[in-house]
Amino acid sequence: GAGVSQSPSNKVTEKGKDVELRCDPISGHTALYWYRQSLGQGLEFLIYFQGNSAPDKSGLPSDRFSAERTGGSVSTLTIQRTQQEDSAVYLCASSLVYRGVYGYTFGSGTRLTVV
Amino acid sequence: ELKVEQNPLFLSMQEGKNYTIYCNYSTTSDRLYWYRQDPGKSLESLFVLLSNGAVKQEGRLMASLDTKARLSTLHITAAVHDLSATYFCAVDRSGTYKYIFGTGTRLKVLA
Q1: DSSP string across B62-82
Q2: DSSP B17-72
Q3: What pLDDT is stored for residue A28 in this prediction?
Q4: Do A31 and B97 touch (CB under 8 A)?
Q5: For site-directed labelling of A114, which of A99, B14, B29, B43 has its Cα 20 to 30 A away?
Q6: How many CB pairs (< 8 A) connect A and B?
Q7: A30-34, A97-101, B20-24 — which one is most confidently predicted on average?
Q8: Minimal C-alpha gap between B101 and chain A (Å)
């Protein structure tokens, strides 16, 4: 596609429920990243995928968070047993080369609200 | 641990004025990026600075990088209302692939 596509754009869920957030990167981009942006805050790194290499999960805040990337393209971020502190905008980005020489291209984000 | 600090965090300025946003980072980095974010929107890439002394300009914005001082600046010339947004710098630490973002500078240009 022309850009990074994320769905849903908004998600309201009850505390304790599981949610799945989807990211469709730009075709041909080998690197995919998930970041989290809490209200009025900067961006917090969550996880990074590069080609067929093992993902860097070092930014995932707890074992309730997991992500996968199927076929080197679409990625799903799953949050189990959601908590109110999980409320944030979850941003996905992709880049052409792993060091992102030309910078990331961000999706429009999924705004998650846990009530 | 790589830390990226921006200042000021908030900036309110009159149209037509000049101002500079500063981005300091704590460890060696090859690359520095500037992004713009409008309220409720995603991040838009502004500049990619790849080497010491790099300077890039687009319209009323000019970004520079001093890797020895571990400092980047984003200079705004003759501000206009349309520049109102939050500006983030991000650093790609040498040998890694993760961006570490600054806290952002929320700019408001008053007519």
Answers
A1: EEEEETTTTEEEEEE-S--GG
A2: --EEEEEEESS-EEEEEEEEE-TTS-EEEEEEE-STT-EEEETTEEEEEETTTTEE
A3: 86
A4: yes
A5: B43
A6: 54
A7: B20-24
A8: 6
